[in-house]
Design a protein that fits this description.
heterodimer, A: mainly alpha, globular, B: mainly alpha, ABC transporter involved in vitamin B12 uptake, BtuC
Chain lengths: 290, 325
């Protein structure tokens, strides 16, 4: 029981890192980016390829994945995404689905459609067991690492968002883009860097998650729904919303798949619909926010 | 001159144009002349019915749905089970499937009344995925991943048996397409259709002029669900087989692409989109069976960058920077 909870938390933290970039871009640019999973996939493939062909250690691959996907995000933002910000939502959805299609087929074509397996270093493979009375908590080391990294990232993000100058500019731009522009904040640069960081975080999530989630070219579509659920439930106004949403989702998914494996993801979708019917704007909505 | 009333203006849109019957006749002639194309035409006609249904929701009511396959799948399975266990007559099966699809849509319509665009997208998507999971779970009824097999269809109207070359199926789907095109033309031209358009343009104002928006949306969505179910049923009838793919996200995405390619808020747009998309699929998947989605993706990205309104208005292609509504 505790083990399932632990796995659920690890899974949820992973989803949070994967989805937070989407949440920020949605809140900031009001842009529904269905190609977000493609960046996560890119991060995963960067890690796999570097480890296999160049023998780069796993822990070094994760920051590299961040840098590579962030750079990709920045380039794509500048040449493709920027022109789409003021288009209707339907156009944005189709545009980003198109990008995801392209990414999937490119990976399929150049690397192959088989699932990629990451060779974890020896010290990450074991598990530690703690016994509380008659409950046993078995913690995989790798999942511990995931939780640790994700918590660290959450704190860093929270710090950047609330304590730094960049963070306050970002929040200003989210609240009202035109006024922020008028106050001399270079909104374009804010958008660009936020998009890049969001994509980079997706890359980190992909790099960390390919062991847990499985990595093959259909990744962007397989997990797109999960990212969207996180964003839809958690809202876009804070970090804590998506965090809580990811944890709910992760725990619900792992528990559901453990106890009722035949129903698959049924539980997750049902939880999402119930929450959205109860709170159509997500669990956490700032009063008066647009 | 007599004064032009509001009614005249509203009726003008619904009037039958002289070129329309010609357009309706064309696919029948193609099937008659080239029976080899019957499978492709059949597929196009089915997807066209499906696209018309989505257009009722997306183009006329302005509700973004990423889960329209839910109703297609319900119709497909309802028709399949009806033919297998009750009676093999297609038309009765079609009506039954429409009833099931309409009921499903009616129940779902209460989930889409509130919330932002993203919420609606997610809820529609979630509903179709839940139905997919349930279909996957109830293996004893739906056949699970193998699909529903062993459907024997009776002849259409007791006269035209389904043949192996697919010609009857093509005529059947085309006939159904015509029926629904005609019905939907009448609906979108009616006061009800105009009220849906008013809701799409501005829900608040529509409510302010006395339109019961919630009720109209429920009605429109139910109607669209029934039409989508009809498309699913026709698919089952012409293939004698249903797979869970009928519920899949790809199905919803495909039909969304068709409506957008053809142009929203225009019934023929859905038909055109279905023809273009199915044709494109056919050609491209012959050329590059595995990678045809790349070209679809590229096409989408370029189309969205230049503006999707331009595709159906070729005269705007070479105007630079001209605004288009």
């Amino acid at each position: 029981m505790l083990t399932i909870l632990f796995d659920g938390v690890a899974y949820g933290m992973l989803l949070f890192v994967l989805a937070i970039g989407l949440s920020v871009t949605l809140g900031l640019m009001n842009f529904i980016n269905l190609a977000h999973g493609a960046f996560a996939m890119a991060g995963g493939y960067v890690t796999v390829l570097l480890m296999r062909h160049y023998g780069v250690p796993f822990l070094l691959c994760v920051p590299i994945a961040f840098v590579v996907t962030a750079a990709m995000g920045a380039v794509l933002e500048r040449i493709l995404y920027r022109a789409m910000y003021d288009k209707p939502a339907l156009d944005q959805v189709l545009f980003s689905i198109g990008l995801a299609f392209i990414a999937v087929t490119i990976v399929d074509y150049s690397i192959g459609s088989s699932e990629q397996i990451i060779q974890l270093p020896q010290w990450l493979r074991g598990r530690t067991e703690l016994v509380f009375g008659d409950h046993v908590l078995a913690m995989g080391h790798y999942r511990l690492l995931i939780i640790a990294v994700c918590i660290a990232l959450t704190f860093v993000l929270q710090y950047i968002l609330t304590r730094t100058r960049f963070g306050s500019r970002l929040r200003a731009a989210v609240d009202d883009q035109r006024v922020a522009d008028g106050l001399g904040i270079n909104v374009n640069v804010i958008f660009l860097s936020t998009f890049a960081v969001g994509s980079g975080l997706a890359g980190v999530g992909g790099a960390l998650g390919s062991e847990v989630l499985g990595l093959d070219p259909t990744f962007p579509f397989k997990f797109m729904i999960y990212f969207l659920i996180v964003v839809a439930i958690g809202g876009t106004s804070s970090l804590s919303g998506p965090l809580l949403a990811s944890l709910i989702l992760g725990i619900a998914d792992v528990t559901g798949k453990y106890y009722m494996p035949k129903l698959g993801s049924f539980i997750v979708y049902a939880v999402m619909i119930v929450i959205l019917l109860w709170r159509p704007e997500g669990l956490f909505v700032k009063r008066g926010a647009r | 001159m007599t004064t032009i009333t509001v009614q005249d203006v509203l009726h003008r849109r619904a009037r039958l144009r002289p070129w329309e019957p010609l357009l309706w006749l064309a696919p029948f002639l193609v099937v008659a002349a080239f029976p080899g194309t019957s499978f492709l035409i059949n597929q196009m006609a089915i997807m066209a019915v499906f696209a018309i249904s989505l257009d009722l929701v997306l183009g006329y009511t302005g509700i973004m749905s990423l889960g329209h396959a839910a109703f297609f799948g319900m119709g497909a399975f309802a028709a399949g089970l009806f033919a297998k266990f009750v009676m093999p007559e297609p038309i009765v099966g079609l009506l039954f499937a429409m009833g099931v699809g309409g009921l499903t849509a009616f129940l779902c319509s209460f989930t889409i009344l509130r919330g932002s665009e993203l919420t609606v997208v997610m809820v529609t998507l979630g509903v179709s995925l839940i139905l997919l999971e349930i279909g996957n779970y109830m293996t004893w009824l739906t056949g699970g991943a193998d699909g529903l097999q062993g459907i024997m269809m009776g002849p259409v109207l007791g006269v035209f048996p389904f043949t192996f070359d697919g010609v009857t199926a093509a005529y059947y789907s085309l006939a159904i397409l015509l029926v629904f095109l005609f019905i939907c033309r009448r609906i979108v031209g009616s006061p009800f259709g105009n009220s849906l358009r008013a809701i799409r343009d501005n829900r608040l104002r529509a409510a302010a002029i006395g339109i019961d928006t919630h009720r109209r949306i429920v009605m429109g969505y139910t109607l669209a669900g029934a039409v989508a179910a009809a498309a699913g049923a026709v698919q089952t009838h012409s293939m004698s087989f249903v797979s869970l793919e009928a519920f899949s996200f790809e199905k919803s995405a495909d039909v969304l692409l068709m409506v957008v390619i053809g142009g929203t808020g225009w019934l023929y747009g859905g038909v055109m989109g279905a023809v273009v998309f199915s044709g494109l699929h056919h050609v491209l998947s012959d050329l590059t069976p595995q990678y045809w989605t790349f070209w679809v993706g590229l096409f989408l990205v370029i189309l969205m960058r230049v503006g999707r309104d331009r595709l159906i208005r070729p005269w705007t292609w070479f105007k630079t920077g001209g605004s288009h509504d």
